[in-house]
Amino acid sequence: MAAVAFVALVGAAGFRATPSVMLQPLHEEFGWSLGTISAAVSVNLLLFGLTAPFAAALMEKLGLRRVVAGALVLVSAGSGLTVFMQQSWQLILCWGVLVGLGTGSMALGFVAVVANRWFVARRGLVVGVLTAGGAAGQLVFLPLLARLTGDHGWRVAALTVAAVALSVVPLVWWRLRDRPADLGVTAYGAGPDDVASLPVVAPGSAVRTALSSLRQAARTRPFWLLAGGFAICGATTNGLVGTHFIPAAHDHGMTQTTAASLLALVGLFDIAGTIASGWLTDRVDSRWLLAGYYALRGLSLLVLPSLFAATAHPSMVVFILFYGLDWVATVPPTVALCREYFGARGAVVFGWVFASHQFGAAIAATGAGLVRDRLGDYDAAWYGAGALALTASLLSLSLLIGRRHRDTGPAGPGIGLAYPAAVITRS
């Protein structure tokens, strides 16, 4: 299950890598401003996040196999149809709507569902591996896409991504299963009384399940602290660095292929960093981990503007290594805290926390493009992102005030103790 989920996440990751490679070619071919193109990326990022909680609930109703296979088909269609576009609204429809819905249906909410259903022991490590697969797959695609775009044009790169996403569908349909019971086994490391072996949410409407989980979680302080920190996480990764690092490096004379290779290195180091974060999540208080990750990321972003140059000098490589280790290391502790505070509904609640991640990413993607259009460089965006990351560190430390929830444990299979007692009774 973990292996098939990993391949599916990598297959969907390719298209999320294309915007940063195609910003400049689209600008040169169609004359669209970077702000306009970034707006399409923002729609993608926003739908990517907003779809996640509904998809997590939909997986309960229709099953993992149908939702993931359908999501990959949407990604393939959105990528393939871009070769026919002539107007900017068509870019928004393909990049933003189709691919946003497709990738959002198998985002980190999918990771949380797989980890919560199939694993008790090593759950944090599995979340780390699957998260690294999705994020690193996105970044490792970059050199290939940059080379295809440079040698054959952006349309060949878009069609390549469409083919990769579609090629994963047969594997998903053949091997993906909904629950351990489908194979006559229990979750890895589960005991007979383990909450993890129970359904994540009660059967019913996916929309009703997603909205009721949000309504109940939004009454709690931990939800807003986690969502606020994760919104900043999205702004400082996918929204800013993932979208604008390549054009920012190009502004300083670096070739697009070299800049894409640097982002690919971020993906490689991210694999080690996220897996290590999953291992640490099984052993260290997740609140301290989040505070440390955000603080280190903020400091690195404050230094970044002084590192850009026409060549990849050693100082930039050190930044890439450091930043890559921290790219999505925040995911395993955030998933763990959602389950701790919200019980077996943690996967759906994490979908909403992830939606805030993409909301932050969408704002940063458009905002950084507008900063570049107005000021002529990205410096203000980098400094602002660094300050925001330090703020996220403080939000994570604020979660330590509620540590008493850890000692009492979840109230039941559907709701964790972050919910007020009255809400638990009504549920």
From TrEMBL:
Q: Where in the cell is it found?
A: Cell membrane
Q: Which CDD domains does the record associate with it? A: MFS_YcxA_like
Mainly localized where? Answer: membrane
Q: Which domain of life is it from?
A: Bacteria
Please provide, in alphabetical order, the Gene Ontology terms of the cellular component aspect for this entry.
Answer: plasma membrane
Residue spans crossing the bilayer: 33-55, 67-84, 90-113, 125-146, 152-174, 223-246, 258-281, 288-310, 316-337, 349-368, 380-401
Keyword tags: Membrane, Transmembrane, Transmembrane helix
Topology within the bilayer: Multi-pass membrane protein
A Gene Ontology molecular function term of the record: transmembrane transporter activity
Q: Where is the Major facilitator superfamily (MFS) profile domain?
A: 1-404
Q: Which Pfam families does the annotation name?
A: MFS_1 (PF07690)
Lyase as a keyword of this entry, yes or no, is: no
Q: Which InterPro entries match?
A: MFS, MFS_dom, MFS_trans_sf, Proton-linked_MCT
Q: Does the keyword Membrane apply?
A: yes
Q: What is this protein called?
A: MFS transporter
* Organism, scientific name: Actinoplanes nipponensis
